[in-house]
Design brief:
By secondary structure, the chain is α+β, with helices and mostly antiparallel strands. The chain is 35% helix and 35% strand. The strands form 2 sheets. Strands 6-5-10-9-8-7 form a 6-stranded mixed beta sheet, with helices on both faces. Strands 1-2-3-4 form a 4-stranded antiparallel beta sheet.
């Protein structure tokens, strides 16, 4: 029997069927705002805008998202600044303990090209595994010619040799001071643990830690330099340390990442990150 309410029932039924189809076939469920990831994304973006390599290391799972953020800030500072204001975050596909998050800037510019994050963890423990955006991925003009870039990379990689002179039974205190100026802040990141020291505090800690050491050798292999500009770089290497102290013989091995900057006529270390 047809009555005046039939069209409404049909409309509601059609809407319900359409919703069921969408839920069945969409690859992920969008959640806006993605509150659990909005603040981690904003922290990462702010660190990128300030070209804060130490902060980006703390917020990332590897060197790759750090390099992307610093290059985006160098090549496209005005575009990146669009994300410095109000943003909208949508949570996309979840896989294991990771999630895809689409962060849109306010306004129409880059409105169809969000920063696409892949986060590991969530909330205050969320860290960036990968980041990209069609508005920011153009690397821009290279500011260093190939031969100059290689020469600079070779120079900064000698910082690993300086570290080996510090981490031995009798540390080179002059190098220790030069690489970590007394008033500078040095960041240490190990897993989820982050600590900050002044260069002066680090100097005292290193000397105290070497008191029981009888012998120590440190070696680096697979050294790589990622030049961000003429004044900033990220260095990585596989580190092996053997030492003997009053408790016996020990060995440490792992991947070490350094954030370094030019200061005056030399280079200083801003952050350490161990594997």
């Amino acid at each position: 029997m047809v009555n005046g309410r039939t069209p409404l029932y049909v409309t509601l039924l059609a809407a319900a069927l359409l919703a069921a189809v969408v839920l069945s076939f969409q690859p992920y469920s969008a959640d806006w705002p993605g509150r659990v990831y909005t603040k981690p994304a904003q922290r990462y973006i702010r660190a990128a805008m300030h070209q804060d390599s130490a902060g980006l290391l703390r917020l990332s799972t590897s060197v790759s998202p750090v390099l992307w953020a610093l290059e985006a800030a160098r090549a496209h500072p005005d575009t990146l600044a669009l994300w410095g204001r109000r943003v909208q975050a949508w949570i996309g596909e979840r896989r294991g303990d990771t999630a895809a998050v689409f962060v849109y800037p306010a306004g129409e510019v880059c409105g169809e090209a969000p920063i696409v994050f892949r986060f590991v963890g969530s909330g205050s423990k969320a860290r960036v595994f990968r980041a990209s955006s069609a508005c920011l991925d153009d690397p821009g003009r290279e500011d260093l010619q190939a031969d100059h870039r290689q020469a600079l990379a070779d120079t900064v990689l000698t910082l690993f040799d300086s570290l080996t002179a510090i981490h031995r039974d009798r540390p080179d205190t002059g190098l220790l001071r030069r690489l970590h100026p007394p008033s500078d802040t040095v960041l240490f990141i190990e897993g989820s643990l982050t600590e900050a020291f002044t260069g002066d505090s680090l100097f005292r800690r290193v000397l105290a830690a070497h008191v029981p050491v009888r012998t120590m050798t440190q070696r680096f292999s697979d050294r790589k330099a990622h030049l961000l500009s003429r004044r900033h770089a990220l260095l990585t290497a596989t580190e092996t340390v053997d030492w003997v102290d009053t408790a016996g013989a020990h060995r440490y091995a792992g991947l070490l990442t350094l954030a370094v900057s030019r200061q005056g006529s030399g280079w200083v270390i801003r952050a350490y990150r161990g594997s």
